């Protein structure tokens, strides 16, 4: 078996398993906080970072998932990039094993391998978020042509990121209005007790009003079971008639052998991102057992883990615990809305929906380091779709 033996100047080695939001935020934070003290290597089975929030604009032709070259992003942070996934961890020997069988040592490991998406509601059209097979785009086309009378948008569980369901429904309503189609009914069926309830009571009430203004019907407290013979079975509740049902996927943690996880593959961590029951192993993002799967939350967890790792490496930083704050930009088909709140909900003062962001960070994924970094590279707005842009966008970072 190949073993990595090269001398990296005696610096503590940090292995980051994952080139998504959490992995990149951690890489940027470590670069800022510990700079030259650490030898950082980013591992990912994909060569690109996918900026997924704009996937909800693709079927409407107003935007698309952005792609960034991971090797170039790592280079900008003085880190190295390994195009391969981590499949196993030996915590005693502090080594990771890659998919190609090679092993590499670490002093600190951050698992940021994200969640895998699984089909959840039989009979429905799944909105995968990336590599969409065109199923939902076809529904938009048929809605515009007046061929569908009732379309249901749903999500399999409350844990996950509920925005896409609301964004697809609101954008579809705007599409119907602009096409002058009348008589079509759009319905959101959600297991939540109130719309986007994780943002708190005030924001949720504002979302409820927005849906009503746009003519989107809302059924709360209902789990979608299956779509068959023109009916969506729900539990509890009566079946709902529909011509088409669009569902987001169910999420499971991407398991890595040797890293503790629960029955759904999610990793339990403490407030500083340490994986419970391990040493020198951290985790952040969708792969953790924290119930909200969101880019902003992934970035906050990555910052907490990076601060702890940097402090262990001798950097002058006081590690702060992860205290989740939710911020989201909701695409509505015209003016976006900005929601903030804490995942515990309630009437807290920070629960609000506004027409302008109450925070400075650019884009739909709010990360202390990642958002300004990507905005500076892309030189485009990472949040608001651009209806004028028809050509696919691939971001080549060049040399600079
Ligand atoms: C349609 C859609 C819209 C969304 N909208 C928003 C939004 O508006 N705002 C927001 O904040 N969030 C949004 N999200 C959620 C957000 O994209 C995720 O929460 C976020 O990407 C999670 O980051 P992550 O780093 O944990 O996982 P990911 O970003 O999924 O990254 C996981 C990485 O790990 C890599 N990997 C997989 N297996 C391995 C392995 N074995 N070893 C090493 N690497 C591995 C993957 O290739 C990938 O690079 C949206 C998601 C979707 C699907």
Q: Domains counted in the coordinates: how many?
A: 2
CATH superfamily of the largest domain: FAD/NAD(P)-binding domain
Q: What can be said about the biggest beta sheet?
A: 5 strands, parallel
> What is the general shape?
elongated
In the CATH scheme, what's the topology name of the largest domain? FAD/NAD(P)-binding domain
Q: Would you list the SSEs in sequence order as H and E?
A: EHEEEHEEEEEEEHEHEHEEEEEEEHEEEH
Low-confidence segments? 384-400
Summarize this structure briefly.
The protein is α/β, with parallel strands linked by helices. It is 22% helix and 24% strand. It contains 7 helices and 23 strands.
Topology:
Blueprint lengths: L12 E5 L3 H14 L4 E6 L3 E4 L14 E4 H7 L3 E4 L2 E5 L4 E4 L4 E3 L2 E4 L3 E4 L6 E2 L8 H10 L5 E5 L8 H17 L5 E5 L11 H13 L2 E4 L3 E6 L2 E5 L4 E2 L2 E4 L2 E4 L27 E3 L11 H18 L13 E5 L6 E5 L10 E3 L15 H9 L22
Parallel strand pairs: 1-2, 1-9, 2-5, 9-20, 11-18, 12-13, 12-18, 13-14
Antiparallel strand pairs: 3-4, 6-7, 7-8, 10-19, 15-16, 16-17, 21-22, 22-23
Describe the structure.
The protein is an alpha/beta fold. The protein folds into two domains: 13-114 and 254-312, FAD/NAD(P)-binding domain; 119-249 and 325-359, FAD/NAD(P)-binding domain, CATH 3.50.50.60. The protein is built from seven helices and 23 strands. It has helices at residues 21-34, 70-76, 135-144, 163-179, 201-213, 295-312, 370-378, and strands at residues 13-17, 39-44, 48-51, 66-69, 80-83, 86-90, 95-98, 103-105, 108-111, 115-118, 125-126, 150-154, 185-189, 216-219, 223-228, 231-235, 240-241, 244-247, 250-253, 281-283, 326-330, 337-341, 352-354. The strands form seven sheets. The protein has a five-stranded parallel sheet, covered by helices on one side. Strand 16 and strand 17 form a beta hairpin. Helix 1 runs parallel beside helix 6 (295-312). The radius of gyration is 22 Å and the shape is elongated. The two termini are 37 Å apart. Flavin-adenine dinucleotide binds next to helix 1, strand 2, helix 4 and helix 6.
């Amino acid at each position: 078996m190949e073993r990595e033996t090269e001398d990296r100047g005696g610096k503590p080695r940090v292995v980051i398993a994952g080139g998504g939001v959490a992995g990149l935020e951690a890489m940027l934070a470590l670069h800022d906080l510990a700079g030259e003290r650490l030898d950082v290597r980013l591992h990912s089975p994909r060569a690109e970072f996918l900026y997924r929030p704009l996937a909800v604009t693709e079927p409407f032709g107003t935007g698309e998932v952005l792609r960034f070259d991971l090797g170039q992003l790592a280079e900008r942070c003085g880190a190295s990039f390994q195009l391969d996934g981590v499949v196993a961890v030996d915590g005693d020997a502090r080594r990771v094993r890659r998919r190609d069988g090679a092993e590499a040592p670490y002093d600190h490991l951050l698992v940021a391998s994200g969640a895998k998406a699984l089909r959840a509601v039989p009979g429905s059209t799944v909105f995968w978020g990336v590599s969409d097979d065109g199923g939902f785009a076809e529904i938009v086309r048929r809605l515009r042509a007046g061929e569908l009378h009732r379309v249901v948008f749903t999500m399999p569980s409350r844990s996950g990121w509920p925005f896409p369901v609301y964004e697809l429904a609101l954008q579809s309503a705007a599409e119907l209005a602009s096409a002058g189609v009348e008589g079509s009914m759009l319905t959101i069926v959600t297991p939540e007790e109130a719309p986007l309830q994780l943002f708190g009571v005030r924001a949720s009430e504002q979302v409820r009003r927005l849906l009503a203004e746009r003519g989107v019907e809302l059924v709360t407290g209902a789990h979608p079971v299956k779509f068959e013979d023109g009916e969506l079975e729900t539990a509890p509740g009566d079946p709902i008639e529909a011509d088409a049902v669009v569902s987001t996927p169910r999420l499971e943690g991407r398991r890595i052998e040797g890293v503790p996880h629960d029955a759904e593959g999610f990793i339990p961590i403490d407030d500083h991102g340490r994986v419970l029951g391990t040493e020198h192993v951290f985790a952040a993002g969708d792969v953790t057992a924290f119930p909200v799967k969101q880019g902003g939350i992934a970035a906050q967890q990555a910052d907490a883990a990076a601060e702890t790792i940097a402090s262990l490496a001798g950097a002058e930083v006081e590690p702060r615990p992860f205290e989740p704050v939710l911020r989201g930009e909701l695409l509505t088909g015209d003016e976006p809305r900005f929601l903030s709140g804490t995942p515990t909900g309630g009437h807290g003062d920070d629960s609000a929906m506004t027409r302008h962001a109450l925070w400075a960070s650019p884009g739909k994924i709010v990360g202390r380091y990642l958002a300004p970094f990507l905005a500076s590279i892309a030189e485009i707005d990472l949040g608001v779709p651009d209806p004028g842009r028809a050509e696919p966008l691939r971001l080549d970072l060049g040399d600079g």
